[in-house]
Amino acid sequence: MKWSLKESSLPNTDNVVIAPPEGKLGVLIPGMGAVATTFIAGVEAVKRGLGQPIGSLTQLATIRLGKRTEGRTPLVKDFVPLASLEDLVCGGWDIFPDTAYEAAVNAQVLEKTLLDQLKEPLRAIQPMKGVFAPEYVRRLNGTYIKQAPTKMDLSEMLVDDIRQFQKSSGVARTVMVWCGSTEVHHKPAEVHQSLAAFERGLADNDPNIAPSQIYAYASLKCGIPFANGAPNLTTDVPALLEMARDRQVPICGKDFKTGQTFMKTMVAPGLKSRMLGCRGWYSTNILGNRDGEVLDDPEAFKTKEETKLSVLDHILQPQLYPMLYQDLYHVVRINYYPPRGDAKEGWDNIDIFGWLGYPMQIKINFLCRDSILAAPIVLDLALFMDLAQRAGMKGIQEWLSFYFKAPMTAPGLYPEHDIFIQLMKLKNTLRWMRGEDLITHLGLEYYD
Q: Could you give the domains of the chain?
């Protein structure tokens, strides 16, 4: 399939018509582990007045409209028609049979006293058997997995799962958000170059088709928006890009931007804005959850490493500023440390230099909770992807780059990693949807 940077995922109309969010919204999640159960439990807690959706733009952020002097700053959720939390119905797949309540207790992210107040809705969520290939996730041994002769058969089983979920839950619309494990490093192969080749590969059990790609194929086949929360290749191949556009389905990814990379996309733009140089950026992490166990495999870590390393190059642009960043030495390490659980700790040592080349240092020690930071991202992506589909948007949703370490873009287009530019892109897209003027921050009109 031929691609052009002139192609747009936006509707070809001057006035965007957004269908109302009528009925319930199903949120299907491959991977019912710490992130997924923290998200589901959090939504249930907010609905019951047991907590606040802190970290969620869709629930708490405002958006400025028009000039600063107009004083129009509605909440995002009042400005664009989003599904309400009351209308969310969650389900998903896992390679272990635990209910959402059991998985949340095992993850040890949320206090059991809170989970016990949410026991009834969480126990009602029993995962469907997962699609699993040990060669793609080598540190886990799935016990609750689908068995079928071919990968095409597995995809059809997933499609049947989706249809059964939609029927039994009575949802009007559905989105899918990947919260499963990081797969081993995976490069596009011949089977990924067209949809026809991909479907032949499913029938022939091509080893280059990963489990995450089988989920994505089933999602797109059902016309369901797909967001990829891991650094896996998944939809970032011509075959599935073609499928998403042809079937008018939004996709986005990849790899939730939560801890250390979140900090990098805030700090690095600040250094570049002041033309301060950087000689070295050493990053290391310790974490002990299932994600840490999976990333203890060097091939899985390589997948994660690529998304983490690419951030600084794209923000600092050494090709434009060789004096400041050409020789930057950037190292990323992840260490599995079981006692830490989900409470990840990231250390950054940044060697910078300023006027006349004099050296300085920045030290960052971020003690974060991985799933606490990721849960509101899952919520926002589910609501925004549903909004995009109701607005007639299709293919890659670059305006959601704000949430990802390795944002998907049109082939040949470099990604924007600066979190402040990403936020402006997101909010300007919302303004565009509603026919409001885009904000440029020029401000000269105040001084004419």
A: 25-256+371-433 (3.40.50.720), 260-367 (3.30.360.10)
Give me 424's structure tokens: 């402006």
Asked whether 312 and 328 are in contact (CB, 8 A), the reply is: yes
Q: What is the chain's length?
A: 448
Which tens digits make up the pLDDT trace of 346-374? 999 999 999 999 999 999 999 999 999 99
CA separation, residue 362 to residues 271, 320, 413 (Å): 11, 23, 32
Q: pLDDT band at residue 3, thresholds of 50, 70 and 90? A: very low
Residue 359: strand pairing partners? 353
Tokens matching residue 332: 């990323």
Residue position matching structure tokens 């230099």: 353
Beta strands in 232-341 (DSSP E): 250-253, 277-287, 329-336
Task: Give pairs for 49-53: CB < 8 Å, separation 24+.
Answer: 50/114, 50/117, 50/118, 51/114, 53/85, 53/376, 53/379
Query: Do residues 344 and 195 touch, judged by C-beta distance below 8 A?
Result: no
- pLDDT tens, 29-42? 999 999 999 999 99
